[in-house]
Design brief:
By secondary structure, this protein is of the alpha+beta class. Helix content is 37%, strand content 23%. It has 3 helices and 5 strands. It has a 5-stranded antiparallel beta sheet with strand order 2-1-5-4-3. A hairpin with a 2-residue loop joins strand 3 and strand 4.
């Protein structure tokens, strides 16, 4: 359910950025992305390990931000890039997608 909602939001945002943006699950599998060819692929890292001490991490040319709490990481947004713009975009996406996920969870 969350992947469909995440993909919908990502698709709406994609026209406003030239960066690759998306969401990975706890196994680092891409579940939503503005580059459809990446969906279903793994970004090859352990999200729980990489994000256990921080909300934001820069790894292999991508900036990641946890959606929700680090206590039990279910999802993280990613933005291709390591600059301050990538970090800001990741922060904004994490807040927006986290709020949407929370509302969806409450509804169900």
């Amino acid at each position: 359910m969350s992947s469909r909602i995440f993909q919908s939001v990502i698709q709406q945002i994609k026209g406003n950025t030239d960066k690759i943006i998306g969401v990975v699950d706890e196994m680092s599998n891409v579940i939503a992305c503005n580059d459809l060819s990446l969906i279903g692929h793994s970004l090859g890292l352990n999200i729980n390990e990489a994000m256990s001490m921080t909300d934001v991490a820069v790894i292999n040319g991508f900036t990641y931000h946890v959606i929700g709490s680090r206590i039990k990481i279910e999802y993280a947004v990613f933005v291709k890039g390591t600059d301050s713009n990538a970090e800001s975009l990741a922060n904004i996406l994490a807040v927006a997608l986290g709020s949407i996920k929370e509302l969806n969870d409450e509804k169900n």
